[in-house]
Amino acid sequence: MNKKILIVGGVAGGASTAARIRRLDERAEIIIFEKGPHVSFSNCCLPYHLSGLIPEHEQLVLMCPEQFYKQYRINARVNNEVLSINREKKELTVKNVVINEVYTEKYDKLILSPGADAIVPPISGIENADVFVVKNVVDIAKLNGFIVSKKAKNISVIGAGFIGLEVAENLKEAGYNVTLIEAANQVMRNLDEDIVQILHKEIYDQGIHLILHDKVVGFNENNISLESGQVVESDAIVMAIGVKPNIKLAKECGLAISERGCIKVDQNYCTEDKDIYAVGDAIEVTHAISGKKVHLPLAGPAQKQARAVADHIYNIPVNNTGYIGSSCIKIFNYNAASTGLTSKSCDVLGIKYDSVYVIPQDKVGLMPGNNQLHFKLIYEVPTGKVLGAQAVGKGNVDKRVDIVATLIKTNGTIDDLRDLELCYAPPFSTAKDVVNYAALVALNLMKGSFKQVHVSEVRKLVENNAYIIDVREKHEFEQGHIIGAVNIPLSELRDRITEIPKDKLVYVHCRSAQRSYNAALALGHLGFDNIYNISGSYLGISFHEYFNDQTTDRKPIVTKYNFN
To answer: What are 507's strand-pairing partners?
Structure first.
């Protein structure tokens, strides 16, 4: 007998499951229920309608129900809300919200892909404010229509994760005055504090009013009151503080829900009911490195889960290797990417680790369009197992992080990363690619060839009058340097050895840490065991310090910033 498979939710997880099932079984009856007016739309592209990069919101819809049926014989029922699940009868109760008709539908297998809802907390006065969320095509059309019709000028975005940042960027590109408010002390929590400062600078330089470490406590119409007492005047507000798994149907029919509020599934994405599966933003998955359950609302994992469910229904073995949370984003002129664990998450998990922060060029320096690439590699100590990577730059950061992501999924080490043979030609990369370079630095650190301090530690060193040597040339030093640093160029180092103390810790830096690394090694060979290289060096220090220097009243630790 032919299978009857029902799917609740018609975006990434649901639509992909349906398409895969059809490829496996031409005779199955497949019905998708979507309570909204669209299935298979590009929710990741929604913010780009605000800047006009995607001119019409209808372009965000990838496939209409008629196309689904003609191409795949999949019955995609939009404007049909599933009201309840009867597990005993294996039956759904559904409401056609257009004609207000309620009906039932039997199933052999049921896949839940209800997604997640935008969190809109009950903050005082929010009911009288023009607050919008960005979840689907209707939402983005509603937001864009409002700000255009009202001739809005000032728009506030609350929350600085993926959606918040992309919405803020595209609103700014469209010419609006944008305020971005984040309760945490940084944007993008999947990046560490040292790396994320580069994005803070770019957001600030592009004219967005970025407010960090300040919580929204109330609304007076569209004016936002913050915990600090500051009031932000707005014509419209976008709420992007996060999402909450949509578990209503699952909970009401008695399926198990996790402590995090997600639908519980096994390694095959099957719930405790053998005929009901769940995928996408409504479930939690296993982190491949930590082994912990995590909520990972990303399109890539949802697509993989969809295929795995379809295969499991048809008895095709699937090896669930877990997830590491690879992601990327564009913020104006910069691209950022990350994978695996951050330093912060390693601290929380109690993993012993170290990291290197390097800033090589992303392609041969003689080639047009070459740029710095800020790259952080995190690895376990003493095994050298690669745990994560983060990259920010104007070039192909995603390529570099994808390389590390692939290595992580094969339990690779920094030695494996060093040994990777990667494509090279001057327009694409350097002969020793960024990832190889980072691995070599990490290996030298593991072997004890040199010692380092991180860029985030430099302010404290300066405040404590630490002995810092700048090994750049004199003309570079004169263009900007760390306050209190001594200039001993690498080219003069061996002739000025007597100026370097042995009775105190000495910290060396250059522009990007390469010359200072050579200086640290040379001094080590000459009997100095008190030398520390500053990871990231002057470029890293400048980027790390800039945003907070500009937005607070603290005293800079450099005479002039250098970003080139």
So the answer is: 468, 532
The SS3 of residue 210 is strand
Q: Which residue in 183, 192, 172 sits closest to 224, CA to CA?
A: 183
- Find out whether 247 and 282 touch, Cβ atoms under 8 Å: yes
Residue 39: per-residue pLDDT: 86
Nearest-CA neighbor of 362 among 309, 306, 435? Answer: 435
**Structural domain boundaries of the chain?**
4-115+244-313, 126-241, 333-447, 452-551
Q: What are the distances in angstroms from CA 380 to CA 293, 384, 432, 457?
A: 20, 5, 23, 21
The CATH number fitting domain 126-241, selected from 3.90.550.10, 3.50.50.60, 3.30.70.380, 3.20.110.20: 3.50.50.60
Residues 6+ apart with CB under 8 A from 65: 39, 75, 76, 77, 78
* Parallel, antiparallel or unpaired: strands 80-86 and 91-96: antiparallel
**CA distances to 92, 100, 112, 270, 272 from 84, in Å:** 6, 16, 12, 19, 17
126-241 and 452-551 share one fold: no
Contact 260, 296 (CB under 8 A): no
| pLDDT surpasses 80 at 1 | no
Instruction: Give the tokens for residue 139.
Output: 């939402």
d(CA 562, CA 147): 39
Q: Is 44 a catalytic residue?
A: yes
Q: Tell me the pLDDT band of 432, cut-offs 50, 70 and 90.
A: very high
- SS3 of 93-154: the string is EEEECCCCEEEEEECCEEEECCCEEECCCCCECHHHCCEECCCCHHHHHHHHHHHHHCCCCE
Q: What is the pLDDT of residue 61?
A: 86
The whole-number average pLDDT for the span 136-156 is 95
Q: What are phi and psi of 421, to 5 degrees?
A: -95, 110
Report the alpha-carbon distance of residue 221 to residue 316 in Å, rounded. Answer: 55
Q: Are 456 and 191 in contact (CB under 8 A)?
A: no
Q: Which of 44, 45, 64, 328 is catalytic?
A: 44
- CA 544 – CA 170 distance, rounded (Å): 25
